[in-house]
Request: fold
Amino acid sequence: MRVRASKLLIFAPAAFLLAFFYLPLGSILKIGLWEEGPTLKPIIEVLSNEYHRRVILFTIGQALASTGLTLLLGLPGAYIFARYEFPGKRLLKAILTVPFVMPSIMVALGFILLFGKSGIITSLIGRDLGILYSWKAIILAHAFYNFPIVIRMVSALWQRVNPHYEEAAMALGARGWRLFWRVTLPLISPAIFASAMLTFVFCFLSFSIPLILGGYRYATIEVDIFTSIMTLLDFRTGSALAVIQIILSMAFMYIYLRALDSYAKREEQRVLQREKRLTRKELLSLKGALIGLYSLTVFIFILAPLIAVIYDSLQFNGSWSLEWYRRIFSAEYNPMFGATTFTAIKNSLLFGFGTVIFSITVGLPIAYALYRWDFRGKRLFDVLAMLPLASSSITLGLGYIALFSKTPLYYSPILIIAAHTIIAYPFVLRAVSTSLKKIRPTLWEAALSLGAREWQAFLKVELPLAAGGLIVGSIFAFAMSIAELGATYMLAKPEYTTITVAIYKFLGARQFGSASALSVLLMAVSTAGFLIIERVGEEAW
Amino acid sequence: MVTIELSGIKKAWEDFKLEINDLRVKDGEFLTLLGPSGCGKTTTLRIIAGFEKPDSGEILFDGKSVNELPPYERGIGIVFQDYALFPHMSVFKNVAFGLEMRRLPKAEIERRVKWALELVGLKGFENRYPEQLSGGQQQRVALARALVVEPQVLLLDEPLSNLDAKIRERLRGEIRRIQRELGITTIYVTHDQEEAMAISDRIAVMNVGKLEQVGSPLELYYRPKTEFVARFLGLSNILELEARNGVACAGKLCFPVEREGRVRIFFRPESVVIESGDDAEILDYELLPGRIRLRLELDGNTIIAERFLEELPFRPERPPRRVGLKVTRFSLL
Ligand SMILES: Nc1ncnc2c1ncn2[C@@H]1O[C@H](COP(=O)(O)OP(=O)(O)OP(=O)(O)O)[C@@H](O)[C@H]1O
Ligand SMILES: [Mg+2]
Reply:
């Protein structure tokens, strides 16, 4: 009874993964590793080329540096969040979710508007800091994206450090740094390691930020593949680079998933420590000042790019105006090469909601099967289902071109939705798995004992209780689809241009005003999307 | 109503083996599975409920095998240790769940939910959510939810272990009352021997995956078959003696037995009557509310005796060095 049901349930998602992830991956491997027989020639050629070698090293180097900066920025926050209660904490927490849902192209644009030659900060302090179009801008933007992850994961464990351990250690004479080093750090290190690994993988695979902020000189592997294929039309080199990237990212992802396991185990411990409410006296002391300074830095860091974009969208020839908005909505002003702004909005929404539906259709059954059933090859299936997390959007785009360019599917928007789904669904899978695991197993048994069939127990008990994870996962999927640039750019015919692609084209044409106005629009569209998902989600379950 | 029979049940995990050769529960009986933590009580219950498939053996309800029936077709009601109330449903919805699954008409559902909530004394709590209830109230909702579908068999897995002592005592009386009222065949799991004695028609004592002994509370208490059962149900005296000519003696204390050779004599501390005399030396003693517990030495054996204070032949403040003793009730292990 069980095995058959689970097979049916997993069949469709498995077929989807096969068609839209494993087969395209196979085509890349074929181009990169096959010339009338297995060969390493393309790879060796890439590796013996000075430029590509530098790109590979730079990709790893910038990911390391970004991770370092991210930790530096995130760890104090994790400590403050885990230990103290202070005025403004809730607001700070809310602000920290902004990077999760802010499209990276908008962050890149914000950085240009802040640090560029005529940027806001540049004109404020009167000289160019030399941040833009260098590795500095890249790691700064990556830190912007990832430090909230560090805060979230590490503070979750820090709160669970049983105070008795620390008290016992203090009673034994450990204090200050020694206490931290010998007792606290070992307890929170799974969180530090897991969040650092996740950051590293994101930075290793990130595309829009190095593309826009790094330029040709500071290209990453992802950007290198993109230019090889889109500008030089060199599929051989592109595929060889992609093979290298896949191997590396899978290794990193494997380490990350292992780290995540030990993190999850620690997170299950229930001892939650109450945060300490700071007294007025403490708020006015050095401690309070440091917390205040940190909060202020976070506020500025997160809000500055956002505000810069909004401000810029409202400036025309040095004065306040809605001119940019008027332009992007006027039909004659048609710089998006074949599509109007309305079409772009429509496409973004279509792909966004399509991705949500596809991701749920693929992710929910897999999450449920892994949670509910035991079957042979379960561990392998788990790994195969999570592997798309290690894929990058450019590799995916390349694989789709290689596999589908001669099929009618190539001209259908389904392909774009499929690409977005492959990128986004692991997050749905994770989020749903996490909330399923939090359901006490006796609830399901209670439902069965009361006469519910398995599917009724699922619909009436488990699904409603996992709805939170499903909603969070859906919002994530929507946000990722809306912000996705690489695969969309490679696959979209002009009539399927999205807002994000349009922003990129404006940036390429250095029309920052229009790019800003579109970015604000993008932000509005995604916010509306989140609200809709939340609403629908809550009503449906 | 229904009888339950387990025969030749086996279930093995890497480091644990459950084996129940023969266990019968009579129609309307209240049977308790009693045993230390990890002995397999929950596993047994889950096998009866159908959540766990036995490696071999049969589960019979009224003589018919239910091995192949899924839990929802076995006609059971379960109360879990953690209550397992659906957190997203009100008390009413929780109790109505099983009836809705059976697609009863709305009016009927309302009538029966009302009946069940009255039965457990929770009238007026329909619209609360589980988190707004105390542990004892949650327990009652869980009971009402299990009973409202009129199951043939009620299974309870340590339903009281998360409650404090006072409520535990009151609720166990109520569970017993309701069970009698409905005459429902019930299997109750606990590791608390006092609870088991208070509530059960019969008790099945388990130890590392096996049934040690099944019998009425008094039978198990006074005539345990194994040392494990003896010790698990309360303080025990076990004397290893040599029987000759129909008696086995420790000093002047003699037991009439039918066997010859080595015997193990068992008796409870309350079966030891203290008299004036010099049979045994008082090693030490402990005052309990209204009672006294003495540790005595008799011919190299330590004996525990427990009496009410007024039964003592001496003033408890000034116990003598030696006393006489008599055992009123004993059995052989
Ligand atoms: N699904 C399982 N897989 C492996 N071992 C299990 C499983 N379920 C139970 N066990 C093992 O079987 C043994 C008996 O467990 P069970 O839960 O039946 O004990 P119990 O008598 O109910 O104990 P407690 O009083 O602690 O609830 C334990 O050693 C447990 O580790
Ligand atoms: Mg148990």
About this structure: The helical segments of chain B are 41-49, 91-101, 106-119, 135-147, 165-182, 193-199, 217-222, 227-233. The two ends of chain B are 36 Å apart (CA to CA). The mean pLDDT of chain B is 91. The pocket of adenosine-5'-triphosphate (ligand 1) is lined by residues B 13, 16, 35, 37-43, 191 (CB under 6 Å).
